[in-house]
Design a protein that fits this description.
With 234 residues, the protein is an alpha/beta fold. It contains five helices and ten strands; from the N terminus they run βββααβαβαβαββββ.
Length: 234
C-alpha cells in the first residue's frame, strides 16, 4: 500500500514476463512498470533473451513446445493445438495485455485423456511449480462468486478449475473474465473489496457444454485419444 510508504504489488512471478512496452523482466526483484516481483527459484536458469529472436530460434522454440512437451497429447486438430499455444503465450504476455482475456476450455470425450496434465504444463512453465487446482464451478452462483473472490485475493496468475461436471453458463464467471476489477462483499462483513482481475482462467471437463455469455468469452482446446480407456495408453 502506498499509504504505508510501500510500492504497489500485484503479484509474484518465478519466470520472466513481458512488460506492456514489449521489454522483458529479467532482473530479479521488484519491477515498478508491472507491479510484479520477479523471484526465480535458486535452481532456475535461463539463457539470455534476444530483443529480436531469429527465425531459427523461433522455430526451435515452437518445435520444443509442440513436439517435445506436448507431442504425446492427442489434440483433435490444428486449431486446438494453436489455441493451446495461445494459452501458454497469454500467460507470458498477460502483463502486456490491457484489458481481459477469454477462458481456455480444455475438453475431451472421456476421463484420463490428459486434460489436467496439459493444463499443469502451463503452470510448470510459468510458476515453476505444480498447478493450484480448484474444483470446477457448480450451478451454485453464490459459491462460485466466493470462489472467484478467493482466487483473486490470493493473486494466482493462473486459475485452473478442474473437472467441470455441469453446463457452463455462469453469469458471475462471465463477469469475472470481462472485468479489470472484481468487486465483492467481504465474507461476514458489510464492506466490499476491489481486486485487480489479472488471472488467466482455464477450465477442464469432459464434453463441456456452454451457455449464456460464456461461448463468446472462451476458446476451445479439444483432446481425443480415440480409446475407450485412454488412461491405459502408453
Amino acid at each position: 500500500s502506498t499509504s504505508w510508504g510501500l510500492p504497489p504489488l500485484e503479484s509474484i512471478t518465478g519466470v520472466p514476463l513481458i512488460r506492456p512496452d514489449g521489454s522483458v523482466i529479467t532482473t530479479p526483484g521488484y519491477d515498478p512498470a508491472t507491479w510484479v516481483i520477479y523471484t526465480p527459484a535458486p535452481e532456475f536458469s535461463i539463457s539470455s533473451i534476444p530483443d529480436i529472436p531469429s527465425d531459427e530460434e523461433i522455430e526451435r522454440s515452437v518445435v520444443l513446445i509442440l513436439t517435445g512437451m506436448w507431442g504425446g497429447f492427442p489434440f483433435v486438430d490444428a486449431a486446438s493445438r494453436a489455441n493451446m499455444l495461445a494459452l501458454l503465450l497469454t500467460m507470458i504476455l498477460r502483463r502486456a495485455i490491457k484489458g481481459c482475456v477469454p477462458i481456455g476450455l480444455i475438453d475431451a470425450p472421456a476421463a484420463g485423456t490428459g486434460k489436467s496434465l496439459l493444463a499443469e504444463t502451463v503452470a510448470l512453465i510459468i510458476t515453476g511449480t505444480s498447478a493450484v487446482m480448484q474444483p470446477a464451478p457448480t450451478r451454485d452462483e453464490e459459491e462460485l462468486r466466493k470462489l472467484v473472490t478467493a482466487i483473486l485475493s490470493a493473486g494466482y496468475p493462473l486459475s485452473i478449475l478442474d473437472n467441470l461436471a455441469c453446463r457452463l453458463d455462469s453469469p458471475n464467471l462471465a463477469r469475472a473474465v470481462t472485468s479489470s476489477v472484481w468487486s465483492d462483499r467481504i465474507l461476514g462483513q458489510s464492506r466490499t473489496i476491489d481486486l485487480p482481475q489479472q488471472t488467466v482462467w482455464v477450465i477442464t471437463g469432459n464434453n463441456i457444454t456452454t451457455g449464456g455469455d460464456i461461448p463468446r468469452r472462451s476458446y476451445w482446446i479439444r483432446l481425443d485419444a480415440k480409446e475407450a480407456q485412454p488412461w491405459q495408453r502408453s
